[in-house]
Amino acid sequence: MKGVFITFEGCDGSGKTTQISLLERYLRDMGCNVLVTREPGGDTVAENIRSVLLASESQVSPRTELLLFLAARAQVVDFVIRPALERGNIVLCDRFADSTVTYQGYAREQDLDWVRRLNAYATNGLTPDKTLLFDIDPVDGLSRQTDRNRMESETLDFHQRVRKGYLAESRLFPERFHVIDASANVQLVHQAVLEALKDVIKPENWKTGNCAIHP
Ligand code: TMP
Question: In this structure, are residues 104 and 110 in contact, taking their beta carbons and an 8 Å threshold?
């Protein structure tokens, strides 16, 4: 595929959404073709699944939760992410398969092998070129959240398992993951993001609106 696929992961309140906006603006200013999407969500069907999953009044069994996150993923991969990568876009995705491994696998304690296999099915084998992990103590992350959704309302213990899971995954896939200290100020974190992506995005080489250097 011609484009580059970058995912943003981290505990709730890690500031990844702010960083995606800053990166998006930076890349657009350079003339890059960027597509920003999020998970769960990204198209009408997946956004509907998101509403069900995150509504605080929903009572959702762990298996239903896992399957709904995966259903939303299959949808956005097929209709949004793959087509954009085929067009040569830089795709910035707010959460992806690693969120399912950490939240439903490590934290919700669903069988990790199953989660990985189901993820492979939902993504049809698509993996990110780079994953930026915004690492923060969940106590600090959650203190930034005011209106908490169903997942954010989980116990502190749950969120600590999420963080541990992310760090464990980053050690399993060191080529793909970049861990960024998300407790630093917004501009410092933005600089760390640009540094982490310097091998896959080279805006200065862009002449034709395609600044993705495929790894
Ligand atoms: P966010 O988009 O505001 O980060 O909220 C999404 C929430 O859903 C967040 O708490 C993480 C959670 N989540 C999972 O539990 N599993 C997943 O696969 C994904 C994509 C998100």
Answer: yes
